[in-house]
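User: two proteins, same treatment. go.

Assistant:
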Amino acid sequence: MPDVCHRCGGRVYPVERVDVGALFHRRCFRCKICGLQLSLRTFNWDQSNNPPDIYCQAHMPRHVGCIDSEAVGIKTAIGAPKRGVALSDQVSNYDWSMYQLQAFATFVVVVVVVVVVVVVVVQFF
């Protein structure tokens, strides 16, 4: 059986094929409501419809009880400052991660301790 477009029902050839779990012609890979041309990054798949269909972000149906990035503020949480990182570290352009800073601080402490021990030993002899 030939591959059939989910939207128009026409045969889909490999060169014009978009496969997102269902096949579409490139020209048929559009928002069901406004007709906006979609890409693999911009489409939204609503599987609650029968048959399922694709939409742009603006026209994706919202269902009661649906938890998405808009409903629970995930976008806000993603953009929030990371815990344990000083604001100056976020603003500056240094490539030092917190791990590197902690490792460097530990190294400095070890060097200071070694210097103190050497000074004390030299004073006794």
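Protein 2:
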Amino acid sequence: PTSKHAVTVSYFYDSTRNVYRIISLDGTKAIINSTISPNMTFTKTSQKFGQWADSRANTVYGLGFSTEHHLSKFAEKFAEYKEAARLAKEKSQEKMDMATSPSQESPAGELSSPLTPVTPPMENINGTDEICDTTPNSDARPEPAQNALAFAHSP
């Protein structure tokens, strides 16, 4: 295991690269930093555990959850952002095609921060029913998608 305690796992949109990411920090160390691609699959390997392979990072990530419900929620969000990644890739390709055409102007740059949280807060998975802190903050920070045990290993 990469972490022996519950950690926050969040989905982000990286506007610089026009990609969606799954990121988890244990303190200041990134234990998950995975770019979601349209060909990825999240597999439920047991009632409370699931995993996905990130071929770019040559890593298989696994998450253990405290309940089947939380695993299902994570799997639903994974599928949602996998589809969003597919659409973002298509949109990015369209922008590239437009940029190569002399009659088209390049789209204006985005003013948002490079990493933007894309998930609303969900309940903690640490045995309590407390809702995650959603206090506004001027810094771009993740909204927890799931708190779970993270496991990573290279194939």
